[in-house]
Amino acid sequence: MKQKGENKFIKWARFLKQQQNKKLLYCLERASPIEVANFLEQQPIESILRILAMLPITRQGELFALFKDSALQIAFYEQLSKGTFAKLFSCMPSDLRVDFYQRLPSKEQTHLLPYLSRKVREDVLMLNSYSPDTAGGIMHTDFATVLNFMNIEEALAKIREDAPTQKMLYYIYVVNEHMKLVGFIPLEQLVLCTPQTKISSILDTNFVYATVDEDQEVVARKIEQYNLAVIPILNQENQIVGIVSYDDAIEIIRAEQVEDMDKFMGIDSEEDDPDYLKISSVQHLKKRVKWAVGVFMSGIVSHYFTHTKFSSQDFIPYLFYVGMIADTGGNVGSQAASVVLQALNRGQVTLSDWIKIIAKELKVSILLASILFFLVYVKIYIMPSEHRTLQMTFIIALSIVLQVICSTIIGASLPLAAKYFNGDPAVAASPAINTIVELVGLLIYYAAIMVISWLYPINQVNTS
C-alpha cells in the first residue's frame, strides 16, 4: 500500500510540473523576444538550459543572440555539445553570429567549424575576415538575389531558395551572371507583376550602396540621409556580399553617441564594456584617472599663477571673482563644443563651413556676453562689499565679456581642429575645454586689471 501511495504522489508531482511547464511555454511563446531574453538573463544557467530546451531551435537561436551578457553566452556555449550548439548557432542572425564567433577563443572556433553547415561556415569565415568597425564587419547575409535575365516566376523560385527572413524582404537585389549588383526591385512590385514579366523590364538601377571597407558610422549616416530600410554592401568587384539594416544603423548611431559623450566627459570607454554595476571600482578608476590627474595638474598651474599675480594687497578683492570668471568660461566653452560636435555628427556642417561656424558662434558669444556684462553690474551692486568701486566693477564685467567670447571660440574650434587633423572631434572633451579656458580666463582677468589700472591709475581698493 505504501509503494502504491508513493507512485500516485510521483505521478501527481510529475503532472503538476508538466502543467507549470505548459504555462511557462505559453508565456514564452507569446512574449516579445527581448522581454524573454531579459528574463532568462536573470536566471541561473541551469534554468536557462532547461527553459530553452522547451522552445523550438529557431526561437532558441533568436533568444541566445539577444543576451547582452557575453560571459553568459560563453558559459551557455560551454554547457552544450558542439553539435547541439551548432544547430542553435545556425539560427542566429548572421551579424550577431559572427560577433559571438569572434569572442570565442581561437581553439573553440576551430572545434566549432566542422559542425556548421556549409552556408553558415562560409558566412562566418567571410564576415570574420573584415574589421569589426567597417561595413563588412557589421553586415549580415540575410538577403535574396535574382538574376537580371529571369522572369518573375523564376525569380520567386530563387527567392524561396535563398530563404531570407520575413523582416528582411524589403528589396530583392538583382545581379548579373558575374554576381555584380545591377539594381533592385521592391517586393510589392515583384508580387504584383505577371509571372512571365522579365526582371530587366522592372529593374530599378538607381540605388545607394556602401563598400565592405567603409566605416560603420559612414554607412549608418547613409541610411539616415537617404531614409533607407536597408543598404547593400559591395566588395571590390561590385558584388553584393551583405546588407546593413536600419536597425543596425540605429545601434551604430546610439553607440557612437555614447562613445562621444564618454570622450566629451573625459572617460575612456571600451566597446565591450559590461554594465555599470558589473565594472569594478578599479576599472572605473582607470577609465577616469587620466583626465582627473590632467585637470588637477593644470589646476596647480592656475593656482600658482593666482598666488603669484594676485598676492598683492591691492589684488585681494579681485580674488573673490576668479571662480566666477573661470566657471563662466568653462560653461560657455562646453556648450559651444557640444553644439558644434552635434552638428558634425549629424552631417549638418563640414570642415569647409568653419568660417560660418566661427562667425555664428562669435555672434552668439557677443549677445551672451552683453547679457552677462549687465548682470555683473547688478550682482556686484546687490551684494554689499566695502571694496566695491566703479573701476573694479568694470574690470570684472570686461573680463567676463572677453572670457565668454574667447571660451566660445575655443570650444567651437577644438572639435573642428580635431576633425581637420583626422582625429575624433569628441576628444575635445569637457575637461580639456574647462582646463584651457580657466587658464585663458586668468590671463584675461589679470591683463584687464593691469591695463585698466594703468590707463586709470586710481586706487582700486576703496576702504571707505
UniProtKB/TrEMBL annotation:
GO cellular component terms, A-Z: plasma membrane
Coiled coil start-end: none
Record's protein name: Magnesium transporter MgtE
Residue ranges crossing the lipid bilayer per the database entry: 362-382, 394-416, 436-456
Cited function: Acts as a magnesium transporter.
Cell compartment(s), UniProt: Cell membrane; Membrane
CDD domains assigned to the protein according to its UniProt record, in alphabetical order: CBS_pair_Mg_transporter
Similarity section: Belongs to the SLC41A transporter family.
Annotated CBS domain residues: 203-261
Keywords: CBS domain, Cell membrane, Magnesium, Membrane, Metal-binding, Transmembrane, Transmembrane helix, Transport
MF terms (GO), sorted A to Z: magnesium ion transmembrane transporter activity; metal ion binding
Summary of subunit composition and partner proteins: Homodimer.
Membrane topology designation: Multi-pass membrane protein
Primary residence: membrane
Source organism: Candidatus Cardinium hertigii
NCBIfam families named among the record's database cross-references: mgtE (TIGR00400)
InterPro entries: CBS_dom, CBS_dom_sf, Mg_transptr_MgtE_intracell_dom, MgtE_N_sf, MgtE_transporter, SLC41_membr_dom, SLC41_membr_dom_sf
